[in-house]
Fold this protein.
Amino acid sequence: MTKIKFTFIGPIRQAVTLANLPLKGALRDEQLQVIQGAGILIKNQEIFKIGPYEDLYPEALTVDAEMVYLTEDFVALPGFVDCHTHLCFAGSRANDFAMRNAGKSYLEIAKAGGGIWDTVTQTRNASLEALVEGTVKRANRHLFEGVTTIEVKSGYGLSLSEEIKMLHAIKQANSETAADLIPTCLAAHICPKDFEGSAKEYLETISNELFPILKSENLSNRIDAFIEDSAFSPDDIADYFQKAKDLGLDITVHADQFHVGGSEVAVAFGAISADHLEASTEREIALLANSNTIAVALPGASMGLGVAFTPARKLLDAGGALAIASDWNPGSAPMGDLLMQAAVLGTYEKLSNAELLAGITCRAAAALGLSDRGSIAVGKLADIIFFQTSDYKDITYHQGKLKPEMVWKKGSCVWKAKG
Ligand SMILES: [Zn+2]
């Protein structure tokens, strides 16, 4: 029998729980549950009780809880969830970035040996150990900045064996970091230029040979595809997504980044999320808002490429569900600072604190199909982050510069800024 361990944290100046918020539509800050002078009683890995510190204190004594007494002002939030990253990769694309900023075209960069194929080559050349090491390093940086759950995509292998290598690296990295890594198979990132056959034939090979291994080796239950002129067409992808659906795999889509088309496919296949959406028009916004597919904004990609943001305000006002993710990748979004990017998106798109914070907590958890996290509520995982301030509004006010002082993951403190 495992020993039951209780931990009691408090008093917390403000606990912003993100509990009981609707999944879809605009949110006002008044809808946020803010508990002043809160205490959180944790039982093993889960939140057992949350409420006023004074009310819970006697119970904490009764169960002989370990007392974590806070002598300074802290704001507690649920651990952040980054529902879209590519942080398993090798190499750097600093040259591409400099060339793009200097006004070079996509083609000129590709001719100079840059672009996504450069990352594919470097990732293929990297050992499993090197990939694991890089992934753990980035995941830990994210964790120490409050991101306790991180989706990580494959998609730089682009062959059966290399995609499997990436997914193995993500699985091993998950066991070496306290953050939870949620793996997604993005073998349909682009059609690899060394594949002899059509895009459809490539997808057929992948779905026939890789999908069964994903299941049997428990490597991923999520299938992603990049639907774009330079990658796969809606027609290319239809059979691939149908096969994924038939196997019970969740579908997510890189949609409407430069041209529309992807979000319509996402809605038609009941995708769990449609991500990017920078090019979405009123039509796609209405389609998404009337579906169960969560729209994911990726402000880090807009900032990396210097292009418009996802129409987050319009998506919310139309009644859509909006999550915000970093898209951390070596090409278009190398920064990987989720809170900073969400805060900047909030300024440009006029998002309330409630919309912004829900986008990186409860609504992002929903985009990963995870109901056990995303809010500070009874029965949820004790993934809790603490900012040293007396007012939660300071977090977006400082536009990402205010970082958590303490990060708790599954009931244990995994990061403390001060010793
Ligand atoms: Zn992406």
